């Protein structure tokens, strides 16, 4: 007997999948590339150069990043619009996680738009107006110039924190909703693992951001 799946069910599953693959994979790669700043401008600039030398990079960006990102963002806003948070009446951790997931999604919609227009296309008036991708020889200096502005740095720290929460909690939701992790105990263990993973990524992301302001970032002594 054939099982007929609703359009909403398929759209939500696609939304979850796009958040893990390819966007989650791209996030990890992005953190790796940014962490090249820990060992100096030349390493970071060369890492950007290597990315831009990928064959058919424009099609890779459009099909592997921008289309999934636009779909995930737009449908995520639709889900948020329909959301009915109940954490004030039932203040359990998972109810708060539900609300925070949607709040971080809204933050990310604006943060990622700003980030892409700023560093990928250099289109934010009043800022550097140079694309890191197109001017990879100056990549480190472009980012450093912006991060020396405490307001821009604060925006990125908030954006990094929101991104990591959204991704780490999204990993848990994906594993549970897709039936990968079954059982209350297994789901609780996975929850702790996702929290630990999120804390690790937060340290990596924030340290990489500060590496553009100081040699080795905040944790410089640990990477020598």
Task: Give me some keywords for this one.
single chain; 224 residues; mainly alpha; 3 helical TM bundles of succinate and fumarate reductases; 9 helices; 72% helix; globular
How would you describe what is shown here?
The protein is mainly α. The chain has one domain: Up-down Bundle (3 helical TM bundles of succinate and fumarate reductases). It has nine helices and no strands. The protein has helices spanning 7-20, 23-35, 41-52, 57-82, 93-120, 139-147, 150-177, 184-211, 220-223. Helix 1 packs across helix 7 (150-177) and helix 4 runs antiparallel to helix 5. The longest helix is centred in the middle third of the chain and has 28 residues, at 93-120. The model has no long low-confidence stretch (mean pLDDT 90).
Break the fold down into its secondary structure elements and pairings.
Elements: H1 7-20, H2 23-35, H3 41-52, H4 57-82, H5 93-120, H6 139-147, H7 150-177, H8 184-211, H9 220-223
Helix pairs in contact: 1-4, 1-7, 4-5, 5-7, 7-8
């Amino acid at each position: 007997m054939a099982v007929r799946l609703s359009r909403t069910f398929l759209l939500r599953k696609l939304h979850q999948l796009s958040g893990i693959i390819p966007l989650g994979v791209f996030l990890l790669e992005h953190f790796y590339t940014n962490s090249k700043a820990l060992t100096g401008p030349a390493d970071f600039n060369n890492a950007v150069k290597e990315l831009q030398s990928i064959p058919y990079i424009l099609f890779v960006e459009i099909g592997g990043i921008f289309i999934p990102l636009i779909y995930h963002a737009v449908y995520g806003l639709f889900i948020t619009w329909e959301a009915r948070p109940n954490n004030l009446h039932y203040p359990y951790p998972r109810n708060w996680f539900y609300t925070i997931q949607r709040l971080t999604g809204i933050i990310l919609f604006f943060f990622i738009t700003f980030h892409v227009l700023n560093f990928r296309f250099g289109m934010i008036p009043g800022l550097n107006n140079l694309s890191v991708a197109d001017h990879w020889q100056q990549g480190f200096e472009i980012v450093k110039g912006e991060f020396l502005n405490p307001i821009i740095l604060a925006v990125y720290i908030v954006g990094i924190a929101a991104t990591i929460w959204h991704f780490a909690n999204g990993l848990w939701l994906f594993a549970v909703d897709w039936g990968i992790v079954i059982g209350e105990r297994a789901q609780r263990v996975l929850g702790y693992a996702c929290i630990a993973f999120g804390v690790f990524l937060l340290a990596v992301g924030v340290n990489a951001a500060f590496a553009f302001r100081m040699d080795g970032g905040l944790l410089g002594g640990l990477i020598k």
